[in-house]
Amino acid sequence: MLTFVALLSFQERRFWKKLNKISYNFSKTVGQNIEPNKSDSLMASKVEKILSQIRALIKNNQTAAALEKHRQGAELFPKSLELKQAHAQTHFLRGEWTNYLAVSVQADDLMRQLAQEQALDITRLRFLGNGWTGPLGHISLLDTVIKLRELNLFSDEQRILLYDSQYASNSALLKLFLPKILNIKSDVKLIEKFTQKFGSIVDQVPMYRLKNRIVDQWSAIDIANQAWSNEHREPVVKLSDSIEARGMSILKRWGLPADAWFVVIHVREGDHRPHARLQNSDISTYFPMMREIVSRGGWVIRMGSPLMRPLPEMQNVIDYAHAIERVDWMDVFLWAKAKFSIATNSGGSEVPMCFGTPVIRTNYSSFGHCSFFEKSFMVPKLYKLKSEKVSMSLQQVLRTPIPWCESTVHENIEFEIIDNSPQDLVNAAVEMFSRFEKNVWSMTQDQVNAQNIRLSEGAVGGLPISQSFLANHQLFVQA
What we know:
The chain is an alpha/beta fold and 479 residues long. It is 46% helix and 11% strand. The strands form 4 sheets. It has a 6-stranded parallel β-sheet, sandwiched between helices. Strands 3-2-1-4 form a 4-stranded parallel β-sheet. The protein has a two-stranded antiparallel sheet with strand order 5-6.
């Protein structure tokens, strides 16, 4: 044992030292060797070849052929977790929600089987790898992990976050979560090797293992947020005093008075993948909404990537996406201090909720799943089959694959995307202001009816549809 430890790199020795402090039983049970053996390496190489073929088919919008390739791969490698998990994601890309859930359950069953065979189940540990700290939306999911643990809803394994802060999309946000969860900082490549070696006890971002079942991430967020709200608990994270002070100084530099309030807006633009463009919208359609906010005495701060189209000069509107002050901790400040957030489907719509900031989720595309959060609602996109003259109702569209994923391409379905109109967006802002003024956040009867339609068609999550949208699009909720 001493001879082997001496061969470990400095990073590996530090990693195992930290892990042993958390659970000496783990390394005692499985050892400290994370290098794959020859048979594992050979299998991984063959599996990767199949996965690369599947990715190529998906890139060419041949998802049915990709499913067939999954079937062939499963026959060759029935114990490959990578293939099983990728199989579930292919169903998700196709908008096949029921199949996505079913294969995800199969993947979890396989994880349990492999964990038992490898004696990993007795360690009572589960690890959260690199996927949890890369994309912005994934970092925000740590909020759900912590809530589920605090609410005693998780399965009884101990969760450990493994992370390399250099590869976090927002290290300032990640830093706020770290004191709330067991964690080990290490090298991204070492973490990847570790999670590949012990994949049967690694939590995947899309699925959560609760005490009596596994659920998809939207259901997990919904369960956690509903229970957290019912118990009137405070947000998991809050701004540090230093970030708040620095953020206020930048607002002053931008010309905001000390008593000014502001709204943040993030409208997703561009993605070269057709399977990820449904979430996009045109920022110019939001200009009347911005003017409505400004007319009420507020400021609007546009967030996002500097690759986005710059905004024209507008009164009391800050194009922070192109500001020299754009930095990760300022992002956190803005999400936390905004009166409310306006956002499309993206990580930028998830983070404000971690701080208790209400959100209007505009141009919401995948409303088959949309998680509850206090004082928040969505304004859905409409869809029209090219063979029809009018857009589909909520019930009709939920019976297609379209609102179950983010794809603009579905085999054998030709459809048009109808984004929220400028008036839809203005109405949503007015609705939010009205709710603030009256301090009324319960669902209207129209919203209850729409939610019942969603649930009857198997949709998950309790985020209500905007009342103003339902009032102005009455055909949307007709059977």
